[in-house]
Amino acid sequence: MSIEVKNLSHIYSKGTVFEHIALEDVSFEVGPHDFIGIIGHTGSGKSTLIQHINRLLVPTSGTIVVNNININEPNVPMKEIVKRVGIVFQYPEYQLFEETVYKDVSFGPKNLGYDEEKVDFLVKQSIEIMGLDYEEIKDKSPFELSGGQKRRVAIAGVIAMKPPILILDEPTSGLDPMGRREMLDMIKNMNKQLGMCIILVTHSMDDVAEYADKIMVFSSGRLMKYGPPAEVFADSKFLADISLDVPQSKAVLERLKEEGYEIDTSAYTTKEAAKEIIRVFGK
Amino acid sequence: MNKKIIELRDVSFVYDSENAPGVKALDEVSLDIYEGEFVGIVGKNGSGKSTLAKLLNALILPSSGKVFVGGMDSADPQYTTDIRKVCSMVFQNPDNQMVATIVEEDTAFGPENLGLAPDKIRRRVDESLKAVGMYDFKDKKPHQLSGGQKQRVAIAGVIAMHPQCIVFDESTAMLDPAGRADLINIMHTLNSEGVTVIFITHYMEEIVGASRIIVMGDGKIIGDGTPREIFSNPKWLEENRLSVPEIVALSTALREGGLDIPPGILSEDELVEALCRLK
Ligand SMILES: Nc1ncnc2c1ncn2[C@@H]1O[C@H](COP(=O)(O)OP(=O)(O)OP(=O)(O)O)[C@@H](O)[C@H]1O
Ligand SMILES: Nc1ncnc2c1ncn2[C@@H]1O[C@H](COP(=O)(O)OP(=O)(O)OP(=O)(O)O)[C@@H](O)[C@H]1O
Ligand SMILES: [Mg+2]
Ligand SMILES: [Mg+2]
User: Fold this and answer.
1) pLDDT digits (tens, 9 = 90+) for A115-137
2) How far is CA A170 from CA A91, A236, B34, in A?
3) pLDDT digit string (tens) for A20-36?
4) Per the CB < 8 Å rule, is B95 touching A94?
5) Where in chain B is the domain with CATH 3.40.50.300?
6) Residue nearest to atom 17 of ligand 1 (CA)
7) A86: which strand partners?
8) Are B92 and B143 within 8 A, CB to CB?
9) What's domain B4-231's architecture?
10) I want to staple A126 with a disulfide (CB 3.0 to 4.6 A). Which of A7, A156, B167, B216 is the partner?
């Protein structure tokens, strides 16, 4: 197992009037080559959870084991965790702080102690993976880029460290539609070709349906469901009750069923849904 | 015809700095927006959408050309405050927008600046926080909120000022599906009450209900039409790094698969209806 979370609870500002239970008795396992999607309403605890996986937050109770290391043991150095777990935060553009794009992206690999040549290579490669023109952008200030450009630079900085576990908190928000697709395809590639373990937090049901192998569903700090997309999207009423949704093409299938047609509603991607509708409505 | 609320005449904007001298973000753009319109703005990353938005609020001034908001020339400093009263903005990132240390104080900030009476401020704060579903969080500190919750508070702060025109710059980006649907409903409600809505987004399905869509590309307006017109050309949209709403993609797949689905379908209701007519 790559990640093993057991009975994790997190209470913010415990013992004050602001006390808030953000995670409650959460347990799950993630395999080394999994592509996991995490969905859940605003404030359901998703960001709180992932910050535990690289020790930015410490559990109120429970344990987190990453590649057989209990990361909250006092003798585990932060560097060992950073090497294993890369996190792209919800507003990654706030992680930008250097004067140039090059310096920003090179910060991580430099800190891992790589030599100049390797750093150079990793920086160039990651900037290009993110669909940016290396020569054009490397000397610009990150603060002078558009929203989507900043986001790409911030993600390049994390990818440059090549972590075996990559966690992304809403990486596609702010990207144009084509950029969103490119980003997800790129993440899928890192999963399939480099074998990286991916955890993707998102509010887009269409994106998790299409890309994730398994989905975690959070509500009010609890892990409500954990399974393949077909299973998670099978109960649209349950999802609606916790402020979520089903992919749009699945919603169409369900509407058709309500209208009395004998149609299989299990498809959850546009392609599969189209096939089923054509089967029923074609001659 | 309603009155013009926004007028851009041959507006160019150049960002000039040491590292990147002379980035032309807008290139001789002319545009009229009328009171009561609901305008969706889409365009690839870096195409100039946020730059356009900032011009409407006099946060930046055109390098050349003219911007009029409610008839006032944005380059004339005596109008700056009034322009911001007419046209408010919800930014891409809520953190840039939070000013106070408690949620309800943050929402009250705008109305206080307008010089309203305390009881009126109270009413507006309550009503705005309720509209975005954050009333129960009114005593919280901004850093105690999740990403989506911050976004809602930022929106409440703008609604509380009762502006004539609101520019939403990717304001749905961090919301869950229900929150997104709620906010779009709020926009349509405000619009039906006469507020001009300008909504910048990367999610095509969010603007199928707009009265007009403007497409930006490399600092220019490259498309301007109804949602039906704009979304009827998937290939052109793709060339400009955009897409069609999922329902349009599904309808197209069905048509290509031999079903007799009329063109121009934009919503789930329309598609279900068209299918029901087949059989
Ligand atoms: N520092 C803090 N102090 C107190 N409460 C907090 C703090 N940070 C977050 N919370 C609360 O904990 C809950 C979980 O927040 P979290 O950021 O994990 O949610 P999320 O699922 O990532 O939401 P979103 O989709 O909006 O990003 C929220 O109700 C939030 O208000
Ligand atoms: N502060 C700045 N200094 C220099 N150049 C800038 C600055 N802000 C934006 N730019 C540049 O101006 C152009 C337009 O940027 P703008 O932010 O208006 O794009 P946008 O359409 O809002 O993009 P996005 O979808 O990524 O938010 C881009 O090329 C961008 O790099
Ligand atoms: Mg979050
Ligand atoms: Mg922008």
Assistant:
1) 999 999 999 999 988 888 999 99
2) 8, 22, 35
3) 999 999 999 999 999 99
4) yes
5) 4-231
6) B146
7) A166
8) no
9) 3-Layer(aba) Sandwich (3.40)
10) A156
